[in-house]
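Protocol step 4 of 6.
Sequence for Inner membrane-spanning protein YciB (Rhizobium esperanzae) entered exactly as in the expression construct, tag removed. Do not edit the line below.
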Amino acid sequence: MTTESDITPSAADRNHPLLKLALELGPLLIFFFANLRGQWLVERFPALSELGGPLFVATGLFMAATVFSLVVSKIVLGHLPIMPFVSGIVVVIFGSLSIWLQNETFIKMKPTIVNTLFGVALLGGLAFGRSLLGYVFNAAFQLDAEGWRKLTIRWGIFFLILAVLNEVVWRNFSDDTWVAFKVWGTMPITIIFTLAQMPLVLKHSLNPETDGEK
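Step 5 output, structure tokens:
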């Protein structure tokens, strides 16, 4: 099974940019809608009542949408993006546990576990002298060693902050607030953070053509 960078622009990615976006955002939007209209869905599709309350219905549909998006990504785009692939595995495992045990804690802790996993992997890689972020972003741009080190530290800390934010929200607010934060809070925060890293990327970017002439 082939996995590639989330931002490595393969030919298929360039030809289907809207499809790539839909595959990444679609499962989250389904999760939000299903939680918001859980009772309405159960009334129209009684079989869904076997899953439990609205959040469990949303979790079941989220799992199905996630698996579907990964299958379509593999067939149409030709690869599985690393982060959605890892996140999808955790979604299926913890979503299944939530529904089976009728315990919302498992699905609520999924973002905490995924973000902690990414954060620890990035920072831990630096401890062994390796910038794992370079394997994800190197097809999009080239940085010098110092640039990769700084960017890896920032992303590692950012993932850990997202993990803490998820814990704070799900433990202190309602289910609806947590779902809204997961869909409408995490994504904008990530986009803003990504854009904020562009000055660092530009400062440490390498020009292959120029380097070759030297």
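Step 6, annotate. The beta strands are 3-4, 80-81.
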